[in-house]
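LOG
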Amino acid sequence: MGQPGLNRRQLLAAVGGLTVAGSFGFAALGTGADALAAGSQTRVRYWNLFSGGDGYNMIAMLDSFREEHPGIAVKDSTLQWGSPFYTKLAMAAAGNRAPDLGVMHLGRVTGFSPGRLLDPFDVDLLAKYGVREADFNPELWKRAVIDGKLYALPLDIHVQLCYYRKDVLKKAGLLGADGRMVPVTSVDEWFDVLKEAKKATKKGLQTIGLWHNDQNFQWWFFVAFYTQLGGTWFNDANTEVTFDTDKATQVLEFLRRHITDGYANPAYGGGAGAEQFVNGAPFAWEGNWSVPVFDAAKVEYGATPLPPVFGTQATHAESHSFVLPHQAERGGAADEGAHRLAAYVVKHARQWAAGGHIPAYTPTLSTAAYQKLEPQNEYVSAMDHQATEPKVWFAGSTGILAQRVGPIVVSSTVGSAKPDAVARRMKSTLTELLASKNPMDGRTAAQGGAVA
C-alpha cells in the first residue's frame, strides 16, 4: 500500500510513467532472481505493487518460497503503485505480454474486464496446494467471484482504523480495565470521548487527525459510516441508483463536526495527523499500514476499527489479491507454478500481518503467533464487518468512483459546501457513473455481468 503520510500522498498523486522499482535493495528484482533461477525448470513471472515495508515483507516470503521450491524460478517485478500499475497490467494483458501472476486491489477486479483481461483461477489446482473457499471469510471470497468464476485470490484485507494513545486516554479516564479504549456506540458518545480527550491533550496538538482534505481517505471514511447506516448504492441489477441522500447527509455532518467542534484543525494538512499522533495527539484515523510506523516510533497505542457511531460495526476495507492476467496460451508448468506461488504466499502470511494487514487466509488468524500480535489482535474483528465499495467497474482503490466522489466529500468536511447539497451532488455523480461505459470493454455496470 505504500507508506502513510507524505510518501503515501506522493504515491496517490503520481501520474508519471510506470517505473519498475529497483530500489530498497530488492535483489530479487534483477540479478538476484536470475541467479536463483539457475537450474530451475519452471519460471513464474510475477508483478506486484508493494513498496516500503510491504515490499520487504513480500520479498521475504518470495525468498522462502524459492528456498522450498528450487524447481520454480520466481521473476518478480515491483511496479509503481496506483493507476499506472493498472494501465501497465491492462496493456500487457491486451497485448499478450502478461506476467503469469499479478496483484490487484479486489475492488478493481470487476472493472478489469474479467474473462478478457483476467483469467479465472483453477480452484481445483488451488485446492491441490492447500487453499480452499472454506479457508476465507465468505463475503471476501464472494467479492472475488464474477459470473461464477474465481478471478482473484485474496491475500489480506486492509482497513481504516481508529488509533489511540493509551497514555493520553488513561489520563482522560477513557481506558477500560483491559487497557483498551472505552466502547463507543453512538455519535454523542464519540464526541463525549473527544471532549474528554481534548482536555488531556498537550497544547498545540489537535485531538484527532482524519485526513480532512484528502479525497481518498474522506471517501473511505464515508463508505464506512454510510455502511453503518445501512446505506446502499445501486439495485442488484445495477440499473438504478439507490443512494440515500438523508443517510449521506448524516455521515457528512458527522465528518464535518470534527472540524466545527474544534477537534481536527483545518490548518493542518492531512498527513499531519500521523505526525501529531506520534507527538502526543490522542487519536488518528489511518490505514492499518501505519502500524509499523507507530511501532517504530515506540508509541504506546491501540487501534480499533472505526467507531460504530451509527450503531452497526462497519469499517472500510480493501484487499490485496492475486490475479491471473490474461494469456492466450495460459496453462502448463508456468500457470501451475503461479497457482502454487499464490497459494503459498496466502498460506504463509504471518510475516505479512506484521505490516498491519489482516491475513485473508483465516487459519492464520487462529494461530498463537497471530493472536499475540498487538494491536492486530484488537482490530482483527474488522474481517467480519467490512464496508466495501459497490461491485461495479468504476469502483476500487483510487478508482474513478473515489476520484469523482472523494473531492465532493472533502468539500463538505472542510466546510466549502453544505452537507445536504453535497449529498445531492454525490447522487447525481453516481447516476452519471452508472450510465457510463467501462473503457476496458465498452459496457455499463448493468451490462458487465458482475454477479457473484
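LOG (cont.) second protein
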Amino acid sequence: MTTPEGREQAYSDYVEGNLRRNYIAHFTHGMLGMTGFRLIFAPTFVPAYLHMLTGSPIFVGLGQALIQLGAIASPVMGAAHIEHRRRVMPAAMTIGILMRLQLLGLAVAGWFLTGSVLVAATFAFLLFFGFFLGSQRVAFQVLLSKVIPIRMRGRLQAWRNIAGGAIAAALSWWAGVHLIETNALGNGYATTFMVAFVLTSLGLGALWLFLREPESPTVKLQMGVLARVREFPQLLVDRDYRNFLIAQMLATAGRIVIPFCIIYAGRKLEIDGATIGLLSLAFLGADTVTNLLWGTLGDRYGFRLVFILTVATWALSLFGMIFAEETWHFLLAFFGLGAAASGYMMSSTTLVLEFGNRDDIPMRLALSTTVETTMATIGPVVGGVIASFAGLLPVFVISLVSLIASLLVLVSAVREPRHLGAESHDAVQR
C-alpha cells in the first residue's frame, strides 16, 4: 500500500492487531513506573527530606523548583528529537533510563555523602531528574497516542493508576514506618529512593519487552530546536488550545503551596516517619479510588470536564487544609490533593493530544510541558521566600486565587475538543 489512504489503513490495522499486547505493556509500565515516581512526586518524602537536610522552607522550595527548572527546555528538545521519527520507542527508552539513573544517584548520595556536599548532590540529581522528566513526558505520551486509540486512553490510565496508586499508597506507608522511621541502611530517605529506582526500572523493562510500535504513516520534517520554537505561534492560532495553556499555567501557579503542605501540617501535628507515611498513604491512596472515576468521565464526556473537576478539588482541599487542626483533617486534605493530582496528570496530558492534528502532538506536548514547568519552577521559589518572611498562609491564598482564575478560564474560554466539529474529530481519530 503506497497511497496515503493505504498507509493510514495499514497503521490502523497494526494498532488494532496489537492493541491487547500494547495495552498490557502500557499498563505494566505505568503501574510499576508510577508506583516508584509517586514516592518522589508525593508532597511528603522529598520536601520532608530537603527540610531535614537544610531546615529552610526556601531550600525546600528551591529543591522542588529545580525539578521543574530542568524540565523547561527539555520537552522541546525531546519533541524535536522524536517528531521526525517513524518509531519513537528507542529514543523513549534512552530518555527513560537516564531519568531513572537520577533516582539511583539520590539514593547513593544519601548513603555516602554528608553535609553541604550531600545537599549540593541532591539538588543536582533533582535538576537532572527534571530535565529527563520533561523529555520523557513528551516521548511516552506520543508513544501512548500511537498505540492506544482515544476511546481507551482514559480507562487504561485509570486502571494502571488504580493499581499503581494502591501499591504506592501501601508502599509509602511501609516506607515511612519501616525505612524512614528506622533510618534503614543509615538513611531511610535514600533507601526509599532506591526502592523507587528499582520499581521504575522494572516498569521500563516491561515496556521494552512487550510493546509493539507501528511506523507512523506521516511525520514532521526534521528541524532544529530553535526552528521548531519559532513555529510555536502557529500552534497558538487554535483559540481553545491557547486558552487551555492559560488555564494550565494558572493551575500550575495554584500548586505553589503543595511542597509546603507537609511543613504546614508539621506545625499543627507531631510529624515523624509514621505520620509522613500516613499522609503519603492518604495522598497516594486517592489514586486507588479516583482514577477510575477520572478515566471513565474523560472517555465518556471528555477530559475538559475532568480538568475542571480536578482544579476545583485542588482548591477545596487547600481551603480545608487552612482550617485543619486534627490528624483526620489533614488526612482528608491530603486525600483531596492526591485525587486532584491524579486527575490533573491524566486530564492535562490527554487533553493536549486532542487539539489540532496528529503530527503536531509532540510539539503541543512540548509547549504545554514547557509552560507548565516554567511556572512550576518559579512557584516553589517564590513560595519559599514568602513562607520564610510572611508565613505559609499568604502562600495558600495565592494558590487559591490562581486555581479559581484557572477554573474561570476553563469554564468560559475552553471548549471540549471532541465537540469542535468533524474536522477536529477526524484529526483526533487519526
